[in-house]
Amino acid sequence: MYNTLLLEISDHVATLTLNRPDSYNAINDEISYELQDAWKQLKRNDEVRVVVLTGAGKAFCSGQDLKAIKDSKDRNLAESLHKRYNPIIKAMRGLPKPIVCKLNGVAAGAGCSLALASDLIVASARASLIEVFVNVGLVLDSGSSYFLPRLVGSTKAFELATMGSKVKAEEALALGMVNKVVPPEELDEAVQAYTDYYKQAPTKAIGLMKQMLNKSFHSDLPTMLEYEAYCQEIAGNSADYKEGVAAFNEKRKPNFTGQ
Asked: The whole model's pTM is what?
């Protein structure tokens, strides 16, 4: 289906793997457009209730493939962001399903942005994150200027952005950049603990909560109170809400379908 990605779907769990291991999953034109298509497919597929995003080989993603553009002259970087990167980040944040990043190795530059755009990050103890843009005279992109200060605070974000500091997994956990750090050999099991939960959870409610949390970043309290009421009405008309109430009254575990 794809040349630079692997997409596997099983038991309501989709695993999307960046598959250019020889280049540490660096992002070229092809993988960026395939990622855009993959997120569209995952949004449409009602069987998918949780997505795992990871990288093949030693790295998660090393960011823009600089070798692919070394001969480009007068490359329009703004146009590249508008056409290639920004649609990916918007699709991830707009996906009404949880995205679990399985951070198997280094996430650098736009690769770091991809990780931070996920909903949860489970990191191998060998993994690291680095906003490497400054090392080539560029600025944060692909959403890092949005996500990073919200996760670590403005002063730490400034340090990480302007110094290109590598953040190892344990430090990333302490800073709030990742949710969990485990030994490499336990990474699959740790990610599965999350997917086992989310594939049985009320997916519609979780998708609405994701939208609410996105909106809360740039809204005031009255706006969010109104939006909560709006979303609660939608959730209250869902099959999962009816099942949840029935299960509570019948003193059993709910069988959510994600609808």
From this structure: 0.94
